[in-house]
Model the fold of this input.
Amino acid sequence: MMRMKLRIYVYAGLLTLLACSLAFAQEPAQHPAPELVPTPGIHSTGFPGLDQYRASRIAVFTDDYGQLARYREANAALAAPGAGEKRVVFFGDSITDIWHLDQYFPGKPYVNRGISGQTTPQMLVRFRQDVIELHPKVVVILAGTNDIAGNTGPMRNEDIEADYASMAELARANGVGVVFSSVLPVHNYTERSKDFFAQRPPARILQLNDWLKDYCAKNKIVHLDYFPALVDDKGLLRKELADDGLHPNDAGYKIMAPLAEAAIARALASKH
Done:
């Protein structure tokens, strides 16, 4: 009888130890969990459309800020200029990117190197690859509107101007003639245009254009002034020239093309 009781006590003790072991094993480890690294946030600009655009560009901003991959293969496939060829690179943002140069300048050796949404710091990153290494006679630069809007963050006019000057100095150091285009006016006459317009105060456009005109005069650079031909009596982009208040339509480009052609001719003449 005593043996039976002893055996029961032993079994009971073993069961108690087993239960304790299982309970201990189920407790979480007493080590601090690894700290989570938050995804970097993008501060609101106050414009929902611009906030959405900037959020969609995080991969570009972190992986290929200047978007060098966009034209890398096209540049490699582009033959060197032939004897007597007067190659011109149109360099800029979406207003250049969507401009079908072959339609407006048929038969001309004009190369489009625009990228939608870009600002002047992004353009500087790719200036050597997409301009200098293509060996053009002239580069036509149209930029600045996205800097004012803050596509890659807030930009002071002084910073935009410094980027313009850097591009001009790089071009000249490599024997490329420079044409600086004025920043185009904008309008808010349609529902689609209101957000673009709010991001680009006309007063800042005028300030930047005044600086560009003065810089070109002081540095003997050809100034391509689109502004007077596109603006209405209220100082805004003529409604019929852009459906969204920012990007020229066919009617807008038909006005711009001969002005660009005349500016290129002046730049080519100044190189002789």
